[in-house]
Amino acid sequence: MHINRVDLNLLVVFDAIYSEGGITRAADKLHLTQPAVSHALGRLRDLFDDPLFERDGRLMMPTPKARSLIGTVRRSLRDLQIMFNDIERFDPATSERGFTVGMRDLLEVSVLPVLAQRMAKAAPTLKLASVRLDRPNLEAELATGVLDVAIDVLRPVSDDIAYQRTAQDRMVVLARPHHRVVSQGLTLEDYLEQDHIQLSSRRSGQSFEDLELSRLGIQRRIRLRCQNAFAALRIVNETDTLLTLAESYARELAPQFGLKVLPLPFKTTPFDAYLYWHKNVDNDPSNRWLREQIQSMIR
């Protein structure tokens, strides 16, 4: 099949249906009518000789053929967007493009309000979406443009992914004001004797502080594993459990829950945050502008 037979706008529709899981939401996203999107899907089905999406309840689920195509489609659309960005000078003050940033929900608390405030002043028509980080698919989502950038701890990545340290952090301990460790001081012995909340979005596995303790040949007493930071902070406020957290988050959140911040009673390796992006957008003006905003904001 020759490319001159293909309407490239069909690929945009394909990506939207795949992302939104339905014709109605895809039409809303693309500012098209539902019949127009349905017609485009019909043309796509003829083009690829495959249903591509099949209804499952209220969702349109991709077929194996669609799943095999989505990576190539998104990379192609990303490359075309970069080409047009190079042609048209990026002006944050007037641009209406959207950015998607992957980060943990806890980091969102400290980063997103400041970033949104900056964008409201310098780039009032830009759109910003913060989404939960899917670590196993981080590289694929950066490569295909699902994410423009991501913020996370240091991770092994391929040579296609660029990264830069944004901030150095350290771990601290949160406790309610009347906990005895607040008045007496928190020793390592106290830390190991107390009940702890382990904050993690994963279903199992050690947290950063537990890995550090295991290197010392010791372990703490975990009474509760929790995936939501605000739930964990409420529990610390209402019980004598302790929560170990990065200091940048702890200083931001502790006053809201009436908690005290205590030094961690053992040394750990640095707990740094890194900004990740795909090297194919190294020189993309809009992506570079976004990276500069994040870097200057959380250094």
UniProtKB/TrEMBL annotation:
Record family assignment: Belongs to the LysR transcriptional regulatory family.
Pfam families noted in UniProt: HTH_1 (PF00126), LysR_substrate (PF03466)
Keywords: DNA-binding, Transcription, Transcription regulation
Name used for this protein in its record: DNA-binding transcriptional LysR family regulator
Organism: Litorivivens lipolytica
UniProt xrefs under InterPro entries: LysR-type_TF, LysR_HTH_N, LysR_subst-bd, WH-like_DNA-bd_sf, WH_DNA-bd_sf, YidZ_PBP2
Residue ranges annotated for the HTH lysR-type domain, each copy included: 6-63
Lineage: Bacteria, Pseudomonadati, Pseudomonadota, Gammaproteobacteria, Litorivivens
Source domain of life: Bacteria
GO molecular function: DNA binding; DNA-binding transcription factor activity
